[in-house]
Target: Cytidylate kinase
Amino acid sequence: MITIARGFGSGGKEIGMMLSEMLNIPCYERQILTMASDFSGIEESVFVETDEKLRGKYIANALRKMPLSNVLEPWEKGFMSDINVFNVQAEIIRSLARTQSCIIVGKCADDILKDYQNVVSVYIEAPRRFCVNNIRSKLHVSVERANQMISSTDRNRAKYYSYYTGGKEWTNPVNYDLVLNTERVGKQRCAQMIAQYVKLKFA
Model:
């Protein structure tokens, strides 16, 4: 299992796809939402709404009493809650870790699988100017809009990670095996380095 956390615009998903080709294993990001929807029966749109972000301040108080490890049944109170939606995704990720080799981008996967021995966790980041240029080349937005997207997305990811990991910092390097800067290393070489590290760790 390889988990990839990434700053918005740093190229983490692209690196995941490159690794997928190199190692001939699947890379999951958005697909986790589809699988979680199929598993639970909850509409996929609900998973999309809560994908690496929290919905409103109410969650911090009203739902804290619900455990972060139990998936609820459809008839139980809180079945459609953000925490249950997270628990469904977490169960899908654990199931993947038990049954196949794959790459998972985002979704707090590094923390969900922290007690598993078959995991390499990576954090991908890059300087703001690099991320801005990367986003602009793909989405054709202004510099101002790209900066807004980075600030908003990374803020949401940080809050989501902190909430579901019990207060851990998303960017803390001690959470990961490797921390790579795509501007300095290059996306292709980042993928190659991760692949080499996997071989070293599990040799």
